[in-house]
Amino acid sequence: KNYKKMAELLQNGTAAGSKDVTLDMMDYKYIDNCNDVKELERIFRALKSGKDGYFPHLISHCENKVREINPRSKELRKLNPITRTKDLPEEEAKLITNGISDWRSEISSCETTTNPADEELPPIRQATTFKGNKSTSDPPKKNNRIRSYDYKSWDKFDADNECAKVDKKIEGTPSIPIASVSTFKMPDKINGSWLSDSEKLIRAGIEKDKGNEAFKAADYDEALIYYSRSISLSRTAASINNRALSYIRLQRWKEAESDCNDVLQLEPENLKAKLRRATARKELLKYVEAKTDLQFVLEMEPHNSRALKILEEVEQKLGKKSSGDAVEASKKSGRKMIITEVSSDEENTEGPVTNHCDSGNKTVKKEEEIPEEKSSEIFTTERVDDQNSKMEDSVKETISHTENLEIEDAIVNTPPAEMPEAVLRIKNLAKESFLSGQYSEAANQYSKAIKMIIKIAEENTNADHSHNVAMLYNNKAACCLKMGDDRECIANCNEVLVLKGMDTKALIRRACAFEHLEKYKQAYLDFRSAQSIDWRIKHAQDGANRVAKHLRDIHGPNWKTMLTENKVLTETSQSNVSSPAKFETKPSSEADIEKKKEEIRRSLFEKLKTEGNSEVKRGNYEKAVVCYTKCMDMCPNEVASYTNRALCYLKLNKSVSASSDCTEALKRDPKNIKALFRRAQANKNLKNYEKACQDLNQVLKLEPENKSANTELVAVKKLKRNFNDEDFLVKPASSVKSDVSTAKVETRKRKIIIEDVESDEETTGFISDSQISSVTDDSRSSQTSGVSSKCLDTVPTPYEFGNAWNAVHPKNAVSEYKRILDRAPVDIIPALVTNKTTDHMIVTFSKIARYHLIAGEKEEVDRAYGILLALSKAQRFNMAAMFLSEKDKKCVLSAMDDLESAEDIGSYVKSDIENLRVTYML
Amino acid sequence: YDCKWIPRSARFVTLGSHPRGTGSINVFEINHRELQVVKEFECPTSLKCGTFAASSLQSRNLATGDFKGKLSVWDLDTMKTTYSTDAHSEIINSIDGVGGLGIGEGAPEIVTGSRDGSVKVWDVRQKDTPVACMEPEEGEDKRDCWSVANEDRCVCAGYDNGDVKMFDLRTMALKWETNVKNGVCCVEFDRKDIAMNKLVVSSLEGKFKVFDVRTLNPKSGFTSLTEKAHKSTVWLARHLPQNRDVFMTTGGAGSLSLWKYDLQYLQNSTISTQPVCGFDWSPDKLGLCVTVAFDQALRVLIVTK
Description:
The complex is a heterodimer of chains A (922) and B (305).
Chain A: H1 2-12, H2 28-33, H3 37-49, H4 56-69, H5 90-109, E1 128-130, H6 151-156, H7 159-172, E2 179-180, H8 197-216, H9 220-233, H10 237-249, H11 253-266, H12 271-283, H13 287-300, H14 305-321, H15 325-350, H16 362-366, H17 375-382, H18 386-413, H19 421-435, H20 439-459, H21 466-483, H22 486-500, H23 504-516, H24 520-533, H25 538-555, H26 559-578, H27 590-618, H28 621-634, H29 639-651, H30 655-668, H31 673-685, H32 689-702, H33 707-729, H34 732-758, H35 764-775, H36 777-790, H37 798-807, H38 814-822, H39 829-833, H40 839-855, H41 858-872, H42 877-882, H43 886-901, H44 910-919
Chain B: E1 2-5, E2 11-17, E3 23-31, E4 34-43, E5 47-51, E6 62-66, E7 70-75, E8 80-86, E9 92-98, E10 109-114, E11 119-123, E12 132-134, E13 145-151, E14 154-159, E15 163-168, E16 173-179, E17 184-189, E18 198-203, E19 207-217, E20 221-228, E21 234-240, E22 243-251, E23 255-260, E24 264-270, E25 276-281, E26 288-293, E27 298-302
Antiparallel strand pairs in B: 1-2, 2-3, 3-4, 5-6, 6-7, 7-8, 9-10, 10-11, 11-12, 13-14, 14-15, 15-16, 17-18, 18-19, 19-20, 21-22, 22-23, 23-24, 25-26, 26-27
């Protein structure tokens, strides 16, 4: 029987039952040679079924083959178990959980509780009934097909007639069989007068999303309607900007331009808007304006390939209008090289985006853009406040002008006195061709001039021509840079640096060349050394920042450490180079450069920090966060930026991020009070009361006088208790209560925060706070009393007691102490005091006892005796009593005397007092 | 049976049935990595389905359909019904709405589909009588209506015999009908407030169809694509509210599949051994979703990247 089955298997197929997969197909060779996807899939399925045995290697081999041929094959779909948080890498898990927690706190804070406004609703539909909803499950099947054996029917079949019928059918079918259903025209405005502001924002967001979707589907008309609807609800730069892009796609240039203008009014530095306006203006034949826009964009992002492309076109058009063609040609060749290089760089980053644009316009077709979803955010990060940006604008413009004229300046400024006649002539020629844009020609002429001057120098060794040579090299480098010949440029700059030592222009040019070659490290170092020579050079600063960004992208946040090794090397080489040069104008030692760099970094850091602080003052916490993040990049070891950012996060209700920032700060400075305090606040918001308590205690350990921490601690404890109650009872009422108390804490917190920002110095925050609070002594003491009275109904824990006791200020406010002590029954006092007994405490206790005695009632007198007795049983009491000063002893003694005189009221006897005196060592 | 996020909050509500046949409404809240029960409520009849789609952002009232054919609108703060009517004579299988939550314009309307074969449209301002009713003619077989979807005054209903019918409420006419050969478990439009775009119809035996409903060919109707998603019934298809091109299908064997239009398969995951009968994307947090399955477990998932 087995034999039979085996034979059957070999002949017909496998046990899996599928006819066409035979055993010999389940073979490495066969699978390798098979290129039929269907068959491979069948084999794969049969292998997976495991009915013919389980061969893991063969299965994976087959799987790989299927994937190779058809990566989207259904057979490759595997059922994965769901990923759980613990399966994720820690970083990612943290990111996700933090994201959710932040979202949660954000959303719960902005839940709208406003009363429903009177909506304008359309009338109720008139009741109608639609009958005859019959089943369509069995559509009448037309059975016109004549069966092959039905000869009678075939006899009747008239082929010609049928052919004619088919022809007629084809003619008869309308060429537009698809009738558009959507006759309904959407209004492009929404009447949102009855909506609240938050609701308007939500609806505007929904409309914008719809617009983005329609845009992605290349339905620009529809996208336009949705964007307009969004704008009619709330004018955000993002939706106007997106609408501008839709207009561009629809080739409605005028509207596009006006929309871009609107965006730029809202956000003057919006690069996308500028770029879009440039595109629109180019089509509107406003070349000059387009050019200024493009120059602005390139100033910010010199590698923007689209801007370069459009600029090229614009310049072409401009050139055709004005100047001759010969100049044009060389100029173009000079440009082209740069552009091709850049665009190839950019392609990788942009990634392939499918283009649905069928409009005939070529330039539009080339543009690959997705409307930005969060452009406003992106740009606010870059934006400083409006005034600043305007100033920067003007500065940048002037810089860009000076940039262009830089060469000219160099030529004019340097005295050509020593320069031989012939060389000077060539040089002037070169200068002219440079200014007219014929860079390659200029470069040739410069090299000719260099050759000549070297020859002269060799012949006539008396005159020192090195300065002139350096200048010529420098100019040649500029030409090479313009032409895009970066290597040549670097070589020239090196020559200059050898001849002249540190020359900022040469350094900057070399840096630019390095940057083009994507040697960001070298570029960065050059920019920085240029900066360290003359920190005012804005171009060097911008360049350094730009390159730093690239470096960060490539190497991650630790890029600076990677750099330092190289830095020292190059610097030494630089100083080596500069030292033998005789005509060294500025002797710059390594240490000097280092120092200057440090200074610059410091000053930048300070600038960013103050900027951040002012943003906080203005309430722009998101912008402040960005500033502080930059601060961290500048000086990663500066704690202040972390704590300040934590503050902003607190303000933004992103407690999770805030707490992680504080943890970072504490890593750097474990005793940073602000960080501890803020983490406590964050934890409080997150309802992590246990952790909040820990942090606050830490604060109090470091600064026992810290009032705000004390009050915060009491509040947290209160919340904690409430929270625990809540846990058991699930009462909505109690949550309301805790909300109230958090609100209260919130107000107090704000006070501290203002203090922080005003006192830029890190440490002063709390001290100034406590100073102020000590000025308003009365109000504050009432505050603490309020807090302590809050807890009156409950017996304190030793921990709370200690904190409350320490919090009392001034130290002779006996009534405050009494209030705290009153909460505790006599018998637990030793436990409450624990080992914290001090001489001050003994004195205070005796004073409290005297207060009790004044009342003259039995309970009071007993209590007075009780607390003194109880205190004597506390740990470390003897030690503390030993250190009582004469004055203190007197104070205690008088209390004892008073007790003795009140003996007849109380329930104690004289000998008790005597014993007490002994224990108090009096 | 069903779960829905409460809009503009980190809470969601689950609907179901107690063993003794009473209904349950539970409200949960996400708290860090835990779920907290905010509210538990028991009502007389088991609840099958619910929707927020016809309530305003301020009130956020939940409309539910129960096993006895009653349609109720709940105020979740007080757990009182603000509207209730005996909508159908048998279980309400499916419910949907339009006009609320800032989605779509015009009057907020609720549509219900029931085992009694009728599909009814309700306006909460009008008690007891539906504003529109689609029911089979007398003498015809009554088909079990398993699913409804509502878009821009168009109602789409799927029946147990595989019929899918689209009614235009403006003209009160049957606009389009087709048969997908298997019982229709779920119909959903990709967005409720744009000119009709795409319609997903999921069915028994693991297949779902996507109809391009933008252009109606007078002869062949809407064009469609078919895809086999699961080895078992496709219980639900739900579009991501933030991006209509992405949607999730849930399977009878506890599997979830993520798709993108042009039916590109993105991801697959098994969460349970039982059918996943409820699924809802959070309208506020991209990628966050909640599911309920017949294993009586509820799961909060997040889809990233």
